[in-house]
TrEMBL record:
Keywords: Cell membrane, G-protein coupled receptor, Membrane, Olfaction, Receptor, Sensory transduction, Transducer, Transmembrane, Transmembrane helix. Coiled coil: none annotated. Its main location: membrane. SUPFAM superfamilies: Family A G protein-coupled receptor-like. Residues 39-285 form the G-protein coupled receptors family 1 profile domain. It comes from Rattus norvegicus (Rat). Belongs to the G-protein coupled receptor 1 family. GO terms for cellular component: plasma membrane. GO terms for molecular function: G protein-coupled receptor activity; olfactory receptor activity. It is a multi-pass membrane protein. The chain crosses the membrane at residues 24-45, 57-76, 96-118, 138-160, 201-223, 235-256, 268-287. This is Olfactory receptor. It is found in: Cell membrane.
Length: 310
């Protein structure tokens, strides 16, 4: 429902108004986004074409890379274009769509990271029953539940955004639309909306982070009973997952678990998890995973051979 909404578009103030810095940001954001697309699409293509990467772990990694690609795409392209404009604006409808997609793919990434932790727990702590428990059908159902859960979370965000009345200022002190910056523009008391925001996004981030860290502590403790080689391989995989979890959840918890107060560093922290993390994830998973690197090499050799035959 829309309440007294006299605002048809918002002005995005971005990260800076300095023309030179905006050009620098254009180059940086473009390089980051191109790197994100290249890295994640390479992982997606490798997993799809490699028979060696058919385990549930890579099934979930495929969807993590997909969510990373979409998550970055909801923000980066528009930010890159806006950095070339003297004044960046976004319509009310586009703003609401951006809020939905940003939270949808962000929440999907959270759920996929939880599923990856579940997968590692079963693989390490229940190795004899691993393929039975984490069958292709079960993994597909878990991913489907993750998509539905993300949609429900995003719809809640949209409901909260549409319940805000906008009747005056329309300058968003941010480089993309999110519920917290919008709260500052609403011409009504936003205490309850902010409380719902913290209990929704904040709770998802905090509870998920704690669940993940506890699960990885249990997994790491169980490695004491494994062989040296098995322990080394499992430890390498788990460390990669833990690094991704900390890099993603740290900024999210900082942004979404506090009252409606803003700090100068908020936009830079948001830049890190919306633009930086999707770029780092494929680097972390490929550099620390020998199977993925070998599969990528085979994919590259096949392409070179096919090109030579032409």
């Amino acid at each position: 429902m829309l309440l007294n909404n006299n605002v048809t578009e918002f002005i995005l103030l971005g990260l800076t108004q300095d023309p030179f810095r905006k050009k620098v940001l254009f180059v940086v954001f473009l390089l980051f986004y191109m790197g994100t697309l290249l890295g994640n699409l390479l992982i997606i293509a490798t997993i799809k074409t490699s028979q060696a990467l058919g385990s549930p772990m890579y099934f979930f990694l495929f969807y993590l890379s997909l969510s990373d690609t979409c998550f970055s795409t909801t923000i980066a392209p528009r930010t890159i274009v806006d950095s070339l404009l003297k004044q960046a604006s976004i319509s009310f409808t586009e703003c609401i769509i951006q809020v939905f997609t940003f939270h949808f793919f962000g929440c999907l990434e959270i759920f996929i990271l939880i599923l990856m932790a579940v997968d590692r727990y079963v693989a390490i702590c229940k190795p004899l029953h691993y393929m039975t428990i984490m069958s292709r059908r079960v993994c597909g159902m878990l991913v489907a539940i993750a998509w539905v859960g993300s949609c429900v979370h995003s719809l809640v965000q949209i409901f909260l955004a549409l319940s805000l009345p906008f009747c005056g200022p329309n300058e968003i002190d941010h480089y993309f639309c999110d519920l917290q910056p919008l709260l500052k523009l609403a011409c009504s008391d936003t205490y309850m909306i902010n409380l719902l925001l913290v209990s929704n996004s904040g709770a998802i981030c905090t509870v998920s982070f704690l669940m993940l860290m506890v699960s990885y502590v249990i997994i790491l403790r169980s490695l004491r009973n494994h062989s040296a080689e098995g322990r080394r391989k499992a430890l390498s995989t788990c460390i990669s997952h833990i690094i991704v979890v900390i890099l993603f959840f740290g900024p999210c918890i900082f942004i979404y678990t506090r009252p409606a107060t803003t700090f100068p560093m908020d936009k830079m922290i948001a830049t890190f998890y919306s633009i930086g993390t999707p770029l780092l994830n494929p680097l972390i998973y490929t550099l620390r995973n020998a199977e993925v690197k070998n599969a990528m090499k085979k994919l590259w050799r096949k392409r070179v051979v096919s090109e030579d035959r032409k």
